[in-house]
Amino acid sequence: MVKLLLFFQQFSIWFKILLSELSNNLISLFLILALYFALWHFPQTIDLLLILNQADAFLFEVPLYFFLLMVSAFLIWNIPKYFYYYNYKDISFSNLIGFVPNQHYKFQERNKSVRYHYLVRIHMRKVLPRILALLLLIISALSILNAMELFELDNIYTNFLEPTDTLIYCIFFLFLLSEPTIYSHMQEFINKIPKTNAFIVLLSVGLIVFIISLGTLNTQTEKDLGNLFLSNCALALFFFTLSFNSYRFLKEFPQKLFYGIVLFSGFILLFSFLALNFVPEWASRINPLSILTLSLLSLFMISFVLILLGKKLKLPLFSIIVVLCLFSSRLFSESSDHYQLTIKPSEVERPNMEQYLYQWIKDRIDIIEEREGKFPALLVSSEGGGSRAGLWSFLIHSYLYEKSNGRYFEENLLSLTGASGGSVGNAMFFAEAQLAMYNNKKASFKTKSTDGYPALKYKASAVYKENYLSVSLLSLLGRDLFKETTSLFRFKNRGKLLEEQWSHTYKKYFSKELDEDILQKEFLSFYNNSTHKEKKRTAPLLLINTTHTQTGNYNVISPVKYAHLRPLTGMRDFIENLQKSYPDSSIGLSTAMRINAGFPYITPVGEVKTTSVSGKQYSDQYADAGYYDNVGGIVSKGVEEVFRNVLRDSFPELQDKINIKHIIIANSEERKIIKTQTQYKAPLTTLQNVRYGHTQEIIKKLGSKYIIKLQPTAIPLSFSESENKEEEVLMIKPVLPLGRYLSTVAVRSMEARLNKVKPQLDAILTVN
Question: Transmembrane ranges (predicted)?
Answer without folding.
Answer: 21-42, 62-79, 127-146, 166-186, 198-217, 229-250, 257-276, 288-308, 315-332
